[in-house]
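Something for you to look into today, if you have time. What I am after is a single protein written out in full by you. I want to see for myself how the chain folds. Could you add the entry underneath, on a fresh line?
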Amino acid sequence: MGKLGGMTDQHEPTYVPITGNQVVAYNLRMARLRRGWTQEEAAERLEPYLGVRWSKASYSAAERSIERQDRIRNFTADELLAFSLAFELPVAWFLLPPEPDVGGRMPLIAYPGAEEGRGHHPGVLIELVFGTPEGQAQLEQRLAEILRRLPLAEQGRYMELVSHVAGLAGLSAVRNTLGDLSVWIENLQDLTALLEQAQAQTTETMHEAIDRFVSAYSHPESEESDDDAGSR
């Protein structure tokens, strides 16, 4: 576990404890900023899915939960579903770990009953959202059972949605390691072209060398007679 408080070591991260509800509050703000809405506009978009209209003060307080330890809003499952519908983002979006704060501190996700200064690292929260390999296998089995109970007309649509989501965490990890895959593909194509060009040039050079070799040794008698004629 990293150190709490300010930055003490360039190589060792420091952490600031936050709760799961503060994670949701952070992502609620991020979702609104992503859509380019004001708090009033976001409250208006949420109203059909919440059944009530949040005042600007209520919406602001919900977002500011990330900054205040003394007034943290307890979000409900109904509200998470409403956020997903209004912002057109997956529920998982609102459970992703926040980025480091302005002081460079990483979030440490505290849980009820945890000792002070203890909690889950961001990577653990990502694992909880997307699941371990064993958990993903169980999730796949559960999804298969759910899909089998759907009308045939809907099975294809939902299976396509599930296939798009499958492997998302793994793909993100690969992109984080290798960078933008499209850039890598373009670079590999350029490298292939260079190798093909080098191979063609090498083949051409070898052909020229072979021709010179053959030419030099295929008419030895004529060369000797020319030398003899010159000496006479």
About this structure: DSSP finds ten helices and three strands in the chain. The radius of gyration is 32 Å. The longest strand covers residues 14-19. Residues 1-9 have pLDDT under 50 and may be disordered.
